[in-house]
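Supplementary Methods S3. Complex input for the adenosine monophosphate-bound model.
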Amino acid sequence: MKYFILFGPPGAGKGTQAAKLVEKFKFKHLSTGDLLREEIKNGTELGKKAKALIDKGSLVPDEVVEGMIASQFEKNTSVGGFLLDGFPRTTAQAEHLDAMLKARGEEVTSVISIMIPDEMVMERIRSRALIEGRADDANDEIIANRISTYHAKTEPVIEFYKAAGKYQEINGVGTIEEIFDKICGII
Ligand code: AMP
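Predicted complex, serialized as structure tokens:
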């Protein structure tokens, strides 16, 4: 089984690219953000706890997202591959994913990182707020918290995958098609 990870700061275009990649390669798309928003929509206990953290721009606890990913791996046994989007977001999650895959005799195939500068993160999230109506996109203070959380907790994941020889970075400034072509080249 192939396990691709789409990595990058909020607003880098991971969700947009994931939708196109799923269409082309028939991957199973696993976005922890989407899974959490689904829990919130369904009013579950998990959703209620997650909402308070998401609305502040903070991360939900590692065990919560790790559990969601594990159950998706169990549910989707006959897919051609997985495309992970927004996970792992901490080094602990990356380590946990490695252990989870190792137990199945598998490993991460490749990490594709879409990089854009911080100024562009702000700009892109502000325009996404107008289209998708996400509460955590609508407020500059929350966006700023997500950017600083990304630098403090998520950026170290880059070194983890560099050390494993699995990290590939592309410049995320360009048209959707340009970025898509670069990602397809890697896959
Ligand atoms: P996203 O849709 O990927 O931008 O995620 C939206 C929000 O969900 C994030 O700001 C976090 O609060 C939460 N979230 C999503 N994925 C994770 C993760 N892997 N670890 C912790 N929190 C997450």
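The chain is about 60% helix and 15% strand. The mean pLDDT is 96.
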